[in-house]
């Protein structure tokens, strides 16, 4: 279903009316985690001023440590919905448990399935039945084939509104948080008709890598990028070192505008 064999044209997925697909170079930005109404609104306004058309933000956070901030849950979803009302930006947010899909889908415009759940088949199937578009991140240890087969689990439940997201894989390299597999973008686009975006924030794990990795994503023909931003990264409850602040974001916006997307 997700293969290009029976679907030669590359697909465009609409998220609350915003297109993601060939030629769109969609900018998705927002806080890694929703912390407070103010922080989320400020991050959304920064993102929107830089040209972002979709707001990201996690209310359910899949953290390595059980002692780390786990997200605000439904209270976070309510904040995202309020910020959407205020800014008009459709919301992309992660769901980590099949039992929460209905709840998250009642607030979100697109469900995000994160790297740690990339082969959680019950979750993939539930997302496939949610009636909402799904952004599927590549598993950090997953091959491209495993990623596409994970997408197939969603598609099999009748949902072809899937956006693939390359977010870096585990390698021996420790200088970056993950190794951005830039070649995965054209490979996935050759094998699948689904849009493919890149997450330079979770790939690099450092603010200063976000701009160069965004350039790489655009140059290789990605259909969009998803970026962490925070009004005060030094106090962020999640992934502050990779969050862009206003100045960086303006620079990134210039790059996105200057480099025409490949179609
Ligand atoms: C995220 O985007 O908030 C996230 C946790 O990403 P990943 O699943 O790629 O680590």
UniProtKB/TrEMBL annotation:
The chain holds residues 71 to 333 of 350 of the full protein. The keyword Transferase applies. Keywords: Transferase. GO terms for molecular function: 3-deoxy-7-phosphoheptulonate synthase activity; aldehyde-lyase activity. The gene is aroF_1. Residues 18-257 form the DAHP synthetase I/KDSA domain. It is an enzyme of class 2 (transferase). It comes from the Bacteria. This is Phospho-2-dehydro-3-deoxyheptonate aldolase. The lineage of its organism: Bacteria, Bacillati, Actinomycetota, Actinomycetes, Streptosporangiales. Its EC number is 2.5.1.54. The keyword Transferase applies. It comes from Actinomadura macrotermitis. GO terms for biological process: aromatic amino acid family biosynthetic process.
């Amino acid at each position: 279903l997700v293969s290009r064999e029976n679907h030669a044209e590359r697909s465009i997925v609409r998220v609350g009316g915003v297109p993601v697909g060939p030629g769109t170079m969609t900018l998705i930005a927002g806080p890694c985690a929703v912390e407070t109404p103010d922080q989320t609104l400020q991050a959304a306004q920064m993102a929107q001023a830089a040209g972002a058309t979709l707001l990201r933000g996690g209310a359910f956070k899949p953290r390595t440590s059980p002692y780390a901030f786990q997200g605000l849950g439904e209270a976070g979803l309510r904040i995202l919905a309020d910020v959407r009302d205020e800014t008009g930006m459709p919301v992309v947010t992660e769901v980590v448990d099949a039992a929460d899909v209905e709840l998250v889908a009642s607030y979100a415009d697109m469900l995000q399935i994160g790297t740690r759940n990339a082969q959680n088949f019950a979750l993939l199937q539930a997302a496939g039945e949610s009636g909402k578009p799904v952004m599927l991140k590549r598993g950090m240890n997953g091959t491209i084939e495993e990623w596409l087969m994970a997408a197939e689990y969603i598609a099999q439940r009748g949902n072809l509104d899937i956006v693939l997201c390359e977010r870096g894989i585990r390698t021996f390299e420790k200088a970056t948080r993950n190794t951005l597999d830039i070649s995965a973008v054209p490979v996935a686009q050759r094998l699948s008709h689904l849009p493919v975006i890149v997450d330079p924030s979770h790939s690099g794990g450092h603010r200063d890598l976000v701009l160069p990795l965004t350039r790489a994503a655009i140059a290789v023909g990605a259909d969009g990028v998803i970026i962490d931003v925070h009004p005060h990264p030094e106090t962020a409850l999640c992934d502050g070192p990779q969050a862009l602040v206003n100045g960086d974001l303006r620079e990134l916006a210039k790059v996105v505008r200057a480099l025409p997307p490949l179609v």
